Amino acid sequence: MRDDICREASRLIQRVMEGYISGDPKTIGALLAYFSPDVLVIGTGRHEFYTSLEALARGLEKDQEEARGIRFVVQDAWYEAKMITEDTCVVYGEFKAREAGAGDKGVTIDMDTRITAGVHREKGGGLVIDSLHQSVPYIYQQEGEYYPKTFANLAEEALKRSAILEKHIQLDPMTGLYNRKYTEIHITRMLSQDRETGLLFVIDMDDFKKVNDTYGHLKGDELLKKTASVMAEHVPPSAIVGRVGGDEFMMFLPGPYDRELGEKAARGLIREISRILSQMKLEQSCSVGIAAICQKGETFEHAYKRADQALYCAKSLGKNTFCWAEDLSPD
C-alpha cells in the first residue's frame, strides 16, 4: 500500500504537468478536479502564488491566453515520491519543456523545470493534490556549478521545501492553529494507534455574532486570534489544537480517561478566555463540550458528535460552563 500511493501520486503529477504543458483547456480543466479547494501552488513567475483552487484556475486561464500559438514537448522527465505518512506523500521530479516547431526563430523557449507536490489519499481512495511547487534553475548559476551536486541533495532540498508547504496548508491562516481538515487528520491518526485514548474538547464562543455585529469583524478577528493564543499556550505539547469553524475550536488531549484532568482543563480554558474578554471589554463567554474517548476504535466523527452534543448541553445550562458527553442521556 505504501508503494501504491507513491506510484499513483507520481503518475498523477506527471499527468498534471504534461497536461499543463500541452496547453489544452479541456485537459487542464479535467485535471483541476484532483486539486484541493485550498491548494497552495507556487509557479516560476513572480505572480504565480495561488492559495486556492479558484485563484489557480484564474491564473491558468491567463497563462493559456499568453501561450496561445506556442506548443511545447516534454523531454527527459522523471518523477519519484517519498512517504510522509501512511496516506500522504511528496512527489518530486524534473522535466525539460522545449518549444516545438520553432523553425528559424532566433530565440526559443527551453525550460528545465523542477517539481515538488504534496499529495494525500482520501478515505474514498482518491488522490488529492494539496500543494505544488514549480521552479527553474537559478539563471545566474555558472556553467560547471552543479548545485545540488547529487540526486540525494536535490531530493533533500525538494523535501525541505515541501515540508514548509505542507506545514502551511495545515494551518488556519488567521489563528495559526490547525485548520479543520488537518485537525481531523491528526486526531484520526492518533486514534488509529492501538494504545491511544483521550479527551476531546469542543470550545465555542457564546454570542460571538454580536461581537461582529456590534464592533465589526476586525474586533471579532482579534478575539479569535487571542483565543487561539491562549489555547496554544495552555496545552501540553502532545495535544492537538485547531480551529474547526468560525468561532469553534477543538482540542484533543491524548492519554487515559481522567475526569479531574478534563474538568481542570475546561475550567482553565473558560477562565483564560474570560480574562481575554474582560480585557477587550466584551460581555461574551465560551462554552465547552467534552467527550472521553475510552474505547479503542472509536472514530473521530463519533467522538466529535458526542462532544458537540455536550457543547450544546453546556449552552442550554446558561453558557460559560462545560458539560460531559458521558453525563448525557443516551436519548
Automatic annotation (TrEMBL):
Gene3D superfamilies assigned: 3.10.450.50, 3.30.70.270
Domain GGDEF, residue spans: 196-327
SUPFAM superfamilies hit by this protein: NTF2-like, Nucleotide cyclase
GO molecular function: diguanylate cyclase activity
GO cellular component: plasma membrane
One Pfam family matching this protein: SnoaL_3
Any one Gene Ontology BP term: negative regulation of bacterial-type flagellum-dependent cell motility
NCBIfam families: GGDEF
UniProt xrefs under PANTHER family: DIGUANYLATE CYCLASE DGCM-RELATED (PTHR45138:SF9), REGULATORY COMPONENTS OF SENSORY TRANSDUCTION SYSTEM (PTHR45138)
Protein name: GGDEF domain-containing protein
Source organism of the structure: [Clostridium] citroniae WAL-19142
